[in-house]
Amino acid sequence: MHEGEEHVIQYMPVGMQTIQSPPEFMIAQMLNAGVDHCILQAGGGYGAMNDYNAFAQSQYPGMFISLLHIDEAIADREDVLTEVDRAHRTLGLNGLYYSHDFSRHGYARNLDHDGFRPFWDKIAAL
Angle between the 23-33 and 50-59 helix axes, to the nearest 10 degrees? Predict the structure, then answer.
């Protein structure tokens, strides 16, 4: 309520009332905007979306290319290295979305820290 008038804030686009976006919904939006191909990526704020993006890519390979995402600040952990392999070999993701978001971990290290060498070597090899 502001100055006696009720207001509503719409966080997401009107079409996303359930905060979901199945591939068919994305394609409808793409067609409406005249977009014929889309690269799917998701940063840390969206959560782990490797599986979902791979699903969209597998359902509509002519429409979507999906990038794998990891939590950059912990890319030296074995579980993250394992996820890179899984995302590439099992899910078919052939690119990396790397947003350099170290904020969730207090900026303790930077992307060129020696501890990340196994990660970067793996990415370069792929």
Answer: 70
Q: For a pLDDT cut of 90, what percent of the chain falls above it?
A: 50
Q: Which two tokens stand for residue 23?
A: 């591939």
Could you write out the three-class secondary structure of the chain?
CECCECCCCCCCCHHHCCCCCCHHHHHHHHHHHCCCCEEECCCHHHCCCHHHHHHHHHHCCCCEEECEECCHHHCCCHHHHHHHHHHHHHCCCCCEECCCCCHHHCCCCCCCCHHHHHHHHHHHHC
User: How do residues 56-107 score in pLDDT, each as one tens digit?
Assistant: 999 999 999 999 988 888 888 999 999 999 999 999 998 998 776 666 666 6
Structure pTM?
0.77
Dihedral angle computed from the Cα positions of residues 6, 10, 15 and 21, in that order, rounded to the nearest 10 degrees: -150
Tell which CATH classification among 3.30.200.20, 3.40.930.10, 3.40.1280.10, 3.20.20.140 matches the domain 22-125: 3.20.20.140
